[in-house]
Specification:
Keywords (chain B): Signal, Transport
Main location (chain B): periplasm
Structural class of chain A: mainly alpha
Order of helices and strands of chain A: HHHHHHHEEHHHHHH
Subcellular location (chain B): Periplasm
Strand order of the largest sheet of chain C: 1-2
Helix content of chain A: over 70%
Low-confidence stretches of chain C: 1-19
Order of helices and strands of chain C: HHHEEHHHHHHHH
Number of strands of chain C: 2
Chains: A mainly alpha (323), B alpha+beta (527), C mainly alpha (311)
Structural class of chain C: mainly alpha
Radius of gyration of chain C: 23 Å
Organism (chain B): Roseomonas populi
Largest sheet of chain C: 2 strands, antiparallel
Number of helices of chain A: 13
Family (chain B): Belongs to the bacterial solute-binding protein 5 family.
Distance between the termini of chain A: 9 Å
Mean pLDDT of chain C: 82
Largest interface: A-B, 62 and 68 residues
Distance between the termini of chain C: 35 Å
Shape of chain C: elongated
Low-confidence stretches of chain A: none
Oligomer: heterotrimer
């Protein structure tokens, strides 16, 4: 087990290294941050000064190795735009995104699982057809459009919820969280729903597909034949079996929501990491992009690791390879 | 379910409001701006949203009024005492938020700090560079020695916010952001700053100038246009800037809100590529083959391209009235602008004749490039111009892309026709003449944003002379001559000057500014 | 584990249940026709494809030709008549004076091309790699899965910006960007299922028979990984179309003069608050109908194709 974990750790380091190289080359190819950040009034001498101040006058490989040297000592660089350590900026924005992503994922599971279960158990019923057709809506309309519709209906027309921004925060462990206040929850409702819509559809569909298949499996038929109560058959045998794809996909979705809820955060002016990364990409703030993506890749590796571990718990047929 | 939750939230919230905060609410201004602020260090990043925010906390020696004319602020008066020396008299009895007095030493300290801020991606040093030495004559008198005659010093100093030599002895950008050093002489004090979200201010009751109405200000950043408008309509904020043109008509018709507007100083124009003598990129004949000589170097072709553009149609249809059609660099009333220059009507037939004269009776093909995330309706404007050019026989392909890739390619001379904008925050024409139209010359610092590489020695000469002339009237005449030369030669094709539009709930009054700054001190309840 | 001697005569174990009298195709059609809803959706979808294919012949205007547009006709309400040409704009016009009806017809072409094109290629690449990872295990699995991690943590907008910088703007470049973004989803899903399947008895049986690897993967493993793959694929076609809309919203989508449905919606987005609903509403409806029909067909297809749901 520990060998297995160690190997995953080494792999993680290699992937992070690859990510940093790709970002360095990619950002270099896209353009020049100084061209974007500099005041139009600046002349050539000021441009040269700014390029030198940000260390962009050196050859790319040299910039990369000085980054790598500092990174090994835990310093991922300072933002070109904010002049603050990139990791600190990410840390400041992380709670807002984390609470939003978890809120959306919880919403998706709570709404999606029961609906999917119903649609899978009674596939021919009108309710199931309605659920399945309705679930298509969840991923057919662009997020930005749905987001604005939510704002127009619930904030502008009805006035039930605040339109944008994050609500009151409470400080815990040095971070600001808003999910513990009423105001915070009210502000979170619409963006979380906006993010959850796609996930709800996904969970419904995965659950239904899994249930339909599992119900025809021999062991389920056997369990039913044995006279086990329907709730026990579904709750234990069916449920356990459909959880694999659901856990995989929900895990991945949670990851990508944490990483890139760019559009929702923009539309709802939610001051999270998605907003930070898109703003940073727009001005090619390389230190933030590199630090952010390296953290994200680490997070995905951990999520995948957890998902793989969960597999082996949920389904004994999947064994972890350990030598 | 949600309905009840929401109702409960509302009830809980209104209970709070009724219990404690009713009088305070009337004195709190919630405003939302569209451009993100990147730093509270007033000298870190020369960017107008940063300047607007700093301008609520700090003060500069001179300041721009709503019409972008230079006015006294921390300085009471100024005059040149020699060809290369300016003397500024400071306002007495000004104190910083922490009680320290503002004196000439602070001016000297600030001027010394500005060019040395570490890691600055765009330094305010461009505004202090002309100063060779700061001489403190007495606590309220300071002399600036400049490198030769420098008439623009009072204008440049309007950009420099003053710090305290004691408080800010060892300032780091982070200390401004955390609030520790966000201490100025300005009308507001900072309470908190959450990057990318909001800045909270309280009034500085000891301010020397007019007392702002608002005891508290929530300065929020909502970068999405539609979301910002929605925040105003839902009552979450009282005031927004950068109203998208698509919402203007709707907001005008809404009895709950009102608009304020001012003619801006941001010129939207087309730059044409002069640097390629032959085979200009994206310029071909009608069969897609290379064209040989670059038609854009022929003034008749440039005139035809300018004449084909129906500026009034762009203002009416694309900008929904939020722009001023123009064929010069500044609004006609500005210092150094050409008051009598007519915009003229679009004339496709005359344009075709000019093209025929230049040897292109059947036109040619070109690609018009532009950003799609930078200026109001930028991608729409280039499509509209594409339609107009196609009508005179110049078949135009249109490509919009994000500023990040656009500006890199434009800088590499990869485009032959491109839409760009220019904000002249100083309100006078030397900045566009020097950066956009003057021949590229790194030693002089000219042509820094001349992406088409236009060059006209006659204009350069007039501009050089203007920059040496201290007398305001004589300089204005020279600047007008330089502008006329460049515009008659179609060095760039001006399209329009943007109007700046703000929207607020009814019952507020706002002094709309030409320079686009959004500051809480400009907003007050209507009488 | 030689893959060169693929024998095509041995029947696949899973197809043994089908009665010999019926051809598989006939059986498949009968199964499919069982659902009226799916059949209706198929008809709608075919109609949409026909409109998309024949748009240049049936659209009243060529919305991609700037010479045919006039900004003086911009933002006209549905049913308005052009002052210049006398043409009626049944669904109104957008900000450039583009006829929305024609814009939607042409936009369907682009959206279907982008959505289906990217989803099919990404599904092929992703599913192959995912199955390979699950079946081969060991180092192959590790490399592929870490590539997946890398890709999933890479923001779409950054991929799109990089492709824009390297290749310039264009519809095919958007397709490439979407493939790069999407293959990892397929790979991850398929690997998860295949990991379970490959431990099942029928695979072990096939291995005991010393069938070639390629055959085991494609004839035995793949059909049993199909149900979740089709779930993901039908969703991903829709998601690709919506993602293209998002890229357009961020200014990274298809060229502005050749709008897809997504770009039409993104353009109209700014007019939503001002009551000019038709600019994004009608393309939105078109997008909705397209995606619903694709998914209804896909849903049913999945049930029909699933070897384990056979009665």
């Amino acid at each position: 087990m520990s060998v297995y974990l160690l190997r995953r750790l080494i792999q993680a380091a290699l992937v992070m290294l690859a990510m940093s190289v790709i970002v360095f080359i990619g950002v270099y190819a896209i353009g020049d941050p100084v061209e974007i950040l500099i005041s139009p009034d600046a002349d050539q001498a000021e441009r040269a000064r700014a390029i030198a101040a940000l260390g962009l006058d050196k050859p790319l490989w040299q910039q990369y190795f000085s980054f790598l040297g500092a990174a090994l000592q835990g310093d991922l660089g300072r933002s070109f735009v904010f002049n603050e350590p990139a990791l600190k900026l990410i840390g400041q924005r992380a709670p807002a995104t984390l609470e939003l992503a978890f809120g959306a994922t919880i919403m998706a599971v709570i709404i999606g699982l029961p609906l999917g279960l119903y649609a899978g158990l009674r596939p021919k019923s009108f309710g199931a057809q309605a659920i399945m057709t309705g679930s298509i809506l969840g991923f057919s309309l662009p997020t930005f459009w749905v987001g604005l519709m939510l704002i127009m209906v619930f904030a502008v027309q009805l006035g039930w919820l605040p339109s944008t921004g994050r609500g009151e925060t409470v400080e815990i462990l040095g971070m600001r969280w808003s999910f513990l206040t009423w105001d915070g929850l009210a502000h979170m409702a619409m963006p979380a729903l906006n993010l959850a819509l796609f996930k709800i559809s996904l969970v419904i569909r995965l659950t239904r597909a899994g249930v339909r298949e599992t119900m025809l499996m021999d062991y389920v038929k056997f369990a039913r034949a044995k006279g086990l109560s329907p709730s026990r058959v579904i709750g234990v045998h069916v449920f356990k079996n459909i959880l694999i794809p659901v856990v995989t996909v929900v895990g991945l979705e949670l990851g990508s929501t944490i990483a890139f809820s760019v559009v929702t955060e923009s539309v709802f002016a939610w001051p999270g990491m998605g907003k930070l990364i898109i703003d940073s990409i727009n001005v090619l703030d390389r230190p933030v992009i590199v630090a952010y993506l390296m953290s994200i890749v680490l997070m995905f590796i951990i999520i995948n690791l957890v998902v793989d571990l969960l597999y082996s718990v949920l389904d004994p047929r999947v064994r972890l390879e350990s030598k | 379910m949600k309905k009840y939750a929401a109702a409960a939230v509302k009830a809980a919230l209104s209970a709070f409001v009724v219990a404690g905060a009713l009088p305070a609410a009337a004195q709190t201004l919630n405003l939302a701006v569209g451009a993100p602020v990147t730093s509270l260090d007033p000298h870190y990043h020369a960017l107008s949203p940063n300047y607007a925010v700093a301008d609520m906390l700090f003060d500069s020696l001179t300041a721009f009024d709503a019409q972008a004319r230079v006015q006294p602020r921390l300085a009471e008066s100024w005059k040149p005492v020699a060809e290369d020396v300016w003397e500024f008299k400071l306002r007495p009895n000004v104190t910083f938020h922490n009680g320290n007095a503002f004196t000439a030493e602070d001016v000297a300290f600030t001027i010394a700090r500005v060019p040395t801020v570490p890691n600055s991606p765009s330094s305010y040093g461009i505004y202090t560079r002309a100063i060779t030495r700061v001489e403190v004559v007495d606590p309220l008198t300071v002399r600036f020695h400049t490198n030769g005659a420098y008439p623009l010093l009072p204008v440049d100093l309007g950009q420099i916010e003053m710090l305290d030599s004691e408080t800010h002895a060892n300032p780091a950008t982070e200390d401004f952001n955390s609030g520790k050093l966000a201490i100025g002489t300005g009308p507001f004090r900072m309470v908190s700053y959450r990057s990318g979200d909001r800045i909270e201010y309280v009034r500085n009751d000891g301010y020397f100038g007019p007392r702002p109405h608002w005891a508290r200000v929530n300065y929020r950043m909502i970068t999405n246009d539609a979301a910002r408008t929605a925040a105003l309509l839902s009552g979450d904020v009282d005031f927004i800037d950068q109203v998208p043109t698509s919402d203007i008509a709707k907001l005008r018709g809404d009895s709950r809100v009102q608009l304020s507007e001012a003619d801006g100083l941001r010129l939207i124009f087309l730059a044409l590529g002069h640097s390629h003598e032959t085979n200009a990129p994206y310029v071909t004949d009608n069969d897609g083959k290379p064209l040989g000589r670059n038609p854009l170097r022929d003034v008749r072709v440039r005139r035809a391209l300018s004449m084909a553009v129906d500026r009034q149609a762009i203002t009416d249809r694309v900008m929904e009235g939020a722009s001023l059609p123009t064929t010069q660099l500044l609004p006609p009333t500005a210092y150094g602008a050409l008051p009598d220059r007519q915009v003229g009507r679009a004339d496709a037939d005359a344009a075709k004749r000019l093209l025929a004269e230049a040897g292109y009776p059947n036109g040619f093909r070109i690609q018009l490039n532009g950003p799609n995330d930078r200026y109001m309706n930028d991608a729409r404007i280039i499509q509209a111009i594409g339609q107009m050019w196609t009508r005179i026989g110049i078949r135009t392909a249109v490509e919009g892309q994000p500023w990040a890739t656009f500006v890199a390619r434009a800088g590499r001379q990869e485009f032959s026709a491109m839409l760009v904008g220019w904000g002249t925050s100083s309100g006078e024409p030397t900045s566009p003449l020097r950066s956009l139209l003057a021949t590229v010359n790194p030693q002089r610092g000219w042509g820094g944003s001349n992406r088409g590489r236009y060059s006209n020695p006659a204009m350069d000469e007039k501009l050089a002379e203007a920059l040496r002339t201290l007398d305001d009237n004589k300089r204005e005449a020279l600047l007008r001559e330089a502008t006329t030369i460049a515009m008659d030669d179609v060095g760039i094709i001006p399209i329009h000057i943007q109007k700046n539009i703000w929207a607020m709930r009814r019952g507020l009054r706002h002094e709309a500014r030409a320079d686009e700054l959004t500051r809480a001190q400009d907003v007050s309840p209507a009488q | 584990m030689s893959a060169t001697t693929a024998g095509s005569t041995a029947p696949a174990p899973t197809s043994g249940k089908v009665p010999r009298a019926e051809t598989p195709l006939r059986r498949f059609i009968l199964d499919f026709a069982e659902s009226k809803l799916a059949l209706g959706a198929l008809v709608v979808f075919l109609a949409i494809v026909l409109v998309a294919v024949f748009a240049p012949w049936i659209a009243p205007q060529n919305p991609y030709d700037l010479a045919q547009l006039d900004i003086m006709d911009g933002r006209l309400e549905p049913g308005s008549v052009s002052e210049g040409t006398g043409m009626t704009y049944w669904l109104g016009t957008d900000d450039q004076g583009r006829d929305m009806l024609s814009g939607i017809m042409y936009g369907l072409r682009i959206s279907l091309l982008v959505g289906a094109g990217s989803a099919i290629v990404a599904a092929f690449v992703g599913a192959s790699l995912g199955m390979l990872a699950a079946y081969a295990g060991g180092r192959t699995d590790t490399v592929i899965m870490r590539l997946v991690d890398l890709q999933l943590s890479f923001p779409t907008i950054l991929s799109a910006l990089m492709i824009l910088a390297f290749l310039g703007k264009g519809i095919m470049n958007v397709v490439i960007a979407l493939i790069i973004v999407e293959w990892a989803y397929y790979a991850r899903t398929v690997r998860g299922t295949a990991l379970v399947e490959r431990r099942r008895e029928y695979i072990e049986a096939a291995q005991c028979l010393a069938l070639p690897t390629r055959r085991i993967i494609f004839r035995h493993l793949l059909p049993n990984c199909m149900p979740p793959l089709i779930v993901v694929a039908t969703i991903q076609i829709a998601r690709a179309i919506a993602l293209e809309a998002t890229l357009s919203f961020l200014g990274l989508g298809v060229p502005i003069t050749e709008p897809s449905l997504g770009l039409l919606i993104a353009n109209g987005y700014e007019y939503m608050l001002s009551g000019k609903y038709w600019i994004s509403f009608y393309p939105g409806i078109a997008l909705l109908i397209t995606i619903v029909s694709i998914n209804l067909v896909g849903d049913h297809l999945r049930d029909v194709l699933n070897p384990r749901l056979k009665k």
